[in-house]
Amino acid sequence: MQHETIPQRASTVREARLPERLSKAKRAFTTRRVDLGKARRIIRSGVVPVAGDLVLARVTAIGQHRRIENVHGRRGDLFIGDEIIVAYGNRYAPDQFEAIVPTDLGECHLVAGGGVAARMTVKHASMKQPTRIEPIGLLGGTSGSVLNLRDFAMTHEATPFRKAPVRIVVAGSSMNAGKTTTVASLVRGLTLAGFRVGAAKLTGTGSGGDLWSMIDSGAAAALDFTDAGHASTFGLDTGELTDVASNLLAALDERNCDVVICEIADGLLQQETAALLEASKQEGWFDGLIFAAGDAMGAAYGANWLIERQHDLIAISGLLTASPLASREAAGVTGLPIVGIQQLTDPVEVAKLIFSKPPVLKRVA
Fold first, then answer.
1. Domain limit, last residue, from 152, 182, 201
2. Does residue 237 sit in the same domain as residue 351?
3. Distance CA 319, CA 136 (A)
4. Which residue range forms the structural domain that includes residue 274?
5. Phi, psi (5° rounding) for residue 46?
6. Overall domain count for the chain
7. pLDDT of 117-173, one tens digit each?
8. Which of these, 123, 291, 295, 334, is most buried using a 10 Å CB contact count?
9. The whole model's pTM is what?
10. Interacting residues of 350 by C-beta distance below 8 A, sequence separation 6+
11. At 216, which CATH number?
């Protein structure tokens, strides 16, 4: 990975006691694959940060994120003056922040509790100002290069012959539409049915919540895009998104899963979501898609959007299933099964749903 160099000789500061300093810092979830033993110096000037770069920063003001999630999933309180180890990354979250990787090592923000550093551009009206952090410097290795999450990513090359007989993807109408609950319910039901289930979150912003949910539901193997070297997938081009997804799918194949359940973050109108769904169709990655929606109108629009693009839509799930009336409306307009937690966690019902041939659907008039 090439870093843009400021037109001056890069200056670095070696710290004999760096390992001790890093051991005392609060280390975020996004850095969980990183071997901090490879950090030899703090680079304070001469480079422009890029997504994935590891940074030691100091908390200067507490805002929206009052806690940071560590590599084990524990959320620890933050205090002004705390030193934290996080990764630079872009963020797209309609219910929270949009933020981008800055072009300098000036003060920026903690834009995700899982450990993403960026500079906020806009925020949802319900959000407080983001927690402010002051970068102390980027972590560098023995050669003087900046350590990046990609340096520690797993790599699994896709093969033309997959081992998992069935792969299902869950997409949604928006953030907080019920995708994660749908995935967890699928994993639980299929595990109870006796299948070895693998699960992966292909896009999103680095945080352990969805990963822990998959594991707690019984997944024999669970991965996310941070395993592929990204703190966030916002801003990745289609080729990079394809690399992330194929890497994770190949890794789950190597774990001999019978069924693989994947989640794509955000809603259909989000750029990376739309791009990855299109790539998945071209690559033939998935045997069916379950769509999570918050209401009947979202379900109807989403069903049309997916049918027009020839995805194998097999059911509607999500927050709307909490409402019998909304479920009835969605069923009436889409002609699809509406499945909530009860159906998805039932081993018999979920096996029938997943292993049946997807219905032939027409666009809603």
1. 152
2. yes
3. 42
4. 166-355
5. 100, -5
6. 2
7. 999 999 999 999 999 999 999 999 988 899 999 999 998 876 666 666 899 999 999
8. 291
9. 0.90
10. 185, 186, 189, 190, 193, 343, 344
11. 3.40.50.300
